[in-house]
Amino acid sequence: RGRTREKEVRNSQRRRAKSILRQAVLGRSQADIEAGCEPAGEQAAANNRGKKVNAGDTFLPPKPYNHLYMVISDPVIDPDRVVLVNFTTFHADEEDCCIAQSGEHPFLTRKSCVRYKDGRISSVSALDTLVARGVLTANKPLSKELLRRVQQGALLSDFMPEGCRKILEDQGLI
Fold this sequence. Notes:
Layout: H1 2-25, H2 30-35, H3 42-45, E1 58-60, E2 69-71, E3 82-89, E4 99-100, E5 112-122, H4 124-132, E6 137-139, H5 144-156, H6 162-170
Antiparallel strand pairs: 1-2, 1-6, 2-3, 3-5, 4-5
């Protein structure tokens, strides 16, 4: 009975963390963009402009959602449309467009892949606000070589949201 309660608590924490990610942390989904929705937190984030976010910067959402998100577009070119994707543990049912081995980034402790289908668009101001509030934690940036591989994988992916892919194409990154 105690294990069942612990499992319910963990599942509740995961649902809450995923909800935070969908609604605030990662800005707009592809469906939101197509519907013309503004990024979550944009009003509150508007006061926090001017902080620097770069391609290759990485962020961790709140626990227990343990996936490293990375900026793969160029926020200097378009600070209002920043493309983020995340690493996940590699399994046979995941895309293999970009595989990273343990140690290629300090966060990666096992073979991982980029989960392009969860690509999101946010803004620099929204990311700055979420870091300032402690909702996201900045992590070590990707190496230039790993960032380039992640960007090239976006071109190969069958599941990268088209809005995300278009931003990368418009910026000449893929």
